[in-house]
Amino acid sequence: MTEKQKMLAGQLYFSEEDELLKERQEAKQLCFELNNLPPKETKAKEEILKKLLKHKGQGVTVELPFRCDYGYNISIGDHTFINYNCTVLDCCEVTIGKNVLIGPNCGIYAATHPTDKKLRLDKQEFAKPVTICDNVWIGGSVVILAGVTIGQNSVIGAGSVVTKYIPPDSIAVGNPCKVIKKA
Fold it and tell me: Is the pLDDT of residue 48 over 90?
């Protein structure tokens, strides 16, 4: 099994492997080109996003700057809005549903690291998928960690750190993020 296959399967993998380094460099180049476009260059922006992302639905807005590790693991549903300064560490699948609103300065982190320091020092890491279901609103400066699913129609309050599953139709806030009421 290659390091990339291990990464995509959620197993420990060596993050400094040549193929993965090359693919991250390609994504960095596309993000650089994207983030340095003049605002009126909407066609060029769409073309770069098509190259970068696994799937981008209709009517999707991605405000710049935007950064990601690979891009090919990110799927974005129709009519989703991603505000300024979003970072997606997509070492595993990151699925963003339809009609999702993501506030500024948000981080979606499928990547994570072992707690064993020897494994970390050996550049071993792993990833878990992140899913944001349809009609979710993510407030500004929210961090969503590896393995999290946010159920449809939920609202995540600004500044929250989402460490575990949020059920559908919930309003959740805090660090760690907790459901405070049904939406």
Answer: yes
Overall average pLDDT of the 87-101 stretch: 98
The count of other CB atoms within 10 Å of the CB of residue 147 is 18
Domain interval for residue 172: 3-182
Are 144 and 115 contacting, i.e. CB atoms less than 8 angstroms apart? no
- Which residue, 121, 124, 98, is CA-closest to 112? 124
Inter-CA distances, 155 with 54, 86, 115, 135, 178, Å: 25, 17, 30, 9, 11
Q: What is the CATH number of the domain that holds 22?
A: 2.160.10.10
pLDDT of residue 90: 98
**Active site positions, annotated:** 113
CA 4 – CA 6 distance, rounded (Å): 5
What's the average model confidence in pLDDT over 76-84? 98
Alpha carbon distance 168, 15 (integer Å): 34
Tell me the chain's radius of gyration from C-alpha atoms.
Answer: 16
153-to-46, 100, 128, 150, 169 alpha-carbon distances in Å: 27, 9, 22, 9, 5
Structural domains of the chain, count: 1
